[in-house]
């Protein structure tokens, strides 16, 4: 039977085509079910996009109420940044200072020759005994090997370099890792011979020397002055020919940064409006022929989205009591007004625009009132978004519902495909059996016809 398949040779009927057409009718039911599944996927994608836009709106609102957005800052500048650099470390006194640098702090230094050929150890420590390290030297070690070994001891007191003296001979020069007169160090090593030409003769000359506001200051062990001017870190980088002027501004609010965050909030709101209205305007495709078409327009005229959008629009015009500034309109943030009696599409959609001049005026007049408004307003926006996407919000529940629907449809589709496959197998078997029976009948008929013909010939 398997060999006969659906040839139709016995019946003269194209049984394969018949089965294919019957199965095509059956698969239309599966296609309709799969399109329903695509529709659920399309709805999920659209809802997730709206949820993402709501999350962005909440983040933008939260940023407007964050203390960091309203923090007053100072600036510190130097008239000669290449020689005197400054940085704020805290609140600094307003005004200016002059700093003159006559000498930078530097590190103690010592030099050695290295004959080589002898194993031993090198011990190095600061003069007070701190940060001691020991370096092992073999008989085959080169002067570069010794320098590399010393530099590998990053917790040690010195760094090493190999230089050539005036005679072209290699010298191992050790320099302290810190500066100032306290940077002196000791070296104990039988494998080295000190070259006094590289030794620091006067340790006191290693300290930085500078003036502040024309007054000589105590020598500094380092070029980084943490306490010379309260609230400032001063870094001496070079000797000055004339005192550098350091200026500190009064604490001010970065109004441009605040305006940027306000614009980000307005943009997030307008994006939400655009995305939601677009989803509600999309009409589903009748008799879809692709996955995309089946998933298109699944939120057309959606009541839930319309309710959400209306609520968010109302929040943009709500009065915030006791904030000093009553609403967004007081900051120049409004729905576009009609011009010549004609309302723009943005106005119809309830999108927002910013009057920069009015916003600037409000910030200049009393930015603390603006902050107070956004503290209350932003919380209200965030709280509402949470009712939609806060883990158990309206949109969250709808997404969970679509997940259940998708799984149910998948279960139904799997069962239907199993039934279709079983039916196709059954039909093929039935037609094959029919072909086999017809062929057997035709074979017997041919035999009988032959026998009768033989009898006639014999008679």
Tags for this model:
8 helices; 19 strands; five-stranded antiparallel beta sheet; 459 residues; alpha+beta; four-stranded antiparallel beta sheet
Quick overview of this protein structure:
This protein has 459 residues and is an alpha+beta fold. The protein is built from 8 helices and 19 strands.
Description:
The chain has 459 residues and is of the alpha+beta class. 46% of the residues lie in helices and 18% in strands. The chain contains 8 helices and 19 strands. Helix 1 runs antiparallel to helix 3 and helix 1 packs antiparallel against helix 8. The longest helix has 65 residues. It starts with 14 loop residues before the first helix and ends with a helix.
Terminal-residue CA separation: 40 Å
Q: Tell me the number of strands.
A: 19
Give the overall average pLDDT: 88
What is the C-alpha radius of gyration, as a whole number of Å?
44 Å
Count of alpha/pi helices: 8
Shape: flat
Runs in which pLDDT lies below 50 for 5 or more consecutive residues are 1-6
Strand content: 15-25%
Walk me through the topology:
Blueprint: H1 15-65, E1 72-73, E2 76-78, E3 84-88, E4 95-103, E5 109-113, E6 120-126, E7 133-137, H2 143-152, E8 158-164, E9 170-176, E10 185-189, E11 193-195, E12 209-212, E13 215-216, E14 224-225, E15 232-236, E16 244-248, E17 252-253, H3 255-281, H4 291-295, H5 303-315, E18 333-334, H6 345-349, E19 353-354, H7 356-389, H8 394-458
Antiparallel strand pairs: 1-17, 2-16, 3-15, 4-12, 4-16, 5-9, 5-11, 6-7, 6-10, 8-9, 12-13, 14-15, 18-19
Helix pairs in contact: 1-3, 1-7, 1-8
């Amino acid at each position: 039977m398997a060999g006969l398949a659906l040839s139709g040779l016995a019946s003269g009927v194209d049984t394969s085509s018949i089965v294919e057409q019957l199965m095509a009718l059956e698969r239309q039911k599966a296609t309709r079910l799969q399109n329903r599944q695509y529709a659920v996927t399309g709805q999920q994608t659209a809802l997730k996009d709206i949820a993402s836009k709501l999350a962005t709106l909440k983040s933008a609102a939260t940023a407007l109420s964050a203390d960091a957005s309203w923090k007053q800052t100072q600036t510190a500048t130097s008239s000669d940044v290449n020689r005197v650099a400054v940085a704020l470390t805290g609140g600094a006194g307003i005004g200016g200072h002059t700093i003159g640098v006559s000498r930078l702090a530097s590190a103690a230094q010592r030099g050695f020759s290295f004959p080589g050929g002898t194993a031993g150890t090198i011990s190095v420590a600061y003069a007070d005994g701190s940060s001691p390290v020991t370096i092992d030297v073999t008989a085959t070690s080169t002067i570069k090997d010794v320098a590399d070994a010393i530099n590998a001891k990053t917790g040690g007191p010195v760094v090493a370099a190999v230089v050539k003296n005036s005679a072209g001979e290699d010298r191992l020069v050790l320099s302290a890792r810190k500066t100032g007169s306290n940077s002196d160090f000791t070296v104990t090593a039988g494998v080295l011979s000190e070259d006094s030409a590289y030794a620091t003769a006067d340790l006191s000359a290693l300290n930085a020397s500078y003036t502040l506001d024309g007054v000589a200051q105590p020598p500094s062990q380092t070029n980084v002055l943490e306490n010379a001017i309260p609230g400032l870190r001063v870094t001496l980088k070079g000797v000055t020919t004339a005192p550098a002027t350091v200026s500190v501004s009064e604490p001010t609010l970065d109004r441009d940064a605040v305006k940027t965050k306000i614009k980000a909030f307005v943009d997030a709101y307008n994006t939400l409006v655009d995305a939601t209205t677009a989803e509600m305007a999309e009409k589903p495709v009748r008799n879809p022929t692709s996955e995309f078409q089946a998933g298109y327009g699944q939120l057309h005229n959606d009541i839930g989205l319309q309710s959400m959008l209306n609520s968010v629009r109302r929040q943009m015009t709500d009065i915030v009591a006791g904030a000093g500034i009553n609403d967004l309109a007081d900051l120049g943030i409004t729905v576009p007004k009609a011009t010549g009696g004609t309302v723009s599409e943005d106005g119809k959609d309830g999108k927002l625009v910013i009057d920069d001049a009015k916003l600037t005026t409000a910030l200049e007049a009393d930015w603390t009132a603006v902050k107070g408004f956004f503290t209350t307003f932003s919380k209200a926006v965030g709280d509402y978004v949470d009712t939609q996407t806060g883990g158990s919000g309206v949109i969250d529940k709808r997404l969970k519902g679509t997940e259940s629907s998708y799984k149910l449809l998948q279960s139904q589709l799997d069962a239907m495909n199993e039934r279709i496959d079983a039916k196709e197998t059954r039909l093929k078997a039935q037609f094959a059996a029919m072909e086999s029976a017809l062929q057997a009948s035709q074979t017997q008929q041919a035999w009988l016809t032959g026998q009768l013909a033989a009898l006639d010939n014999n008679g």
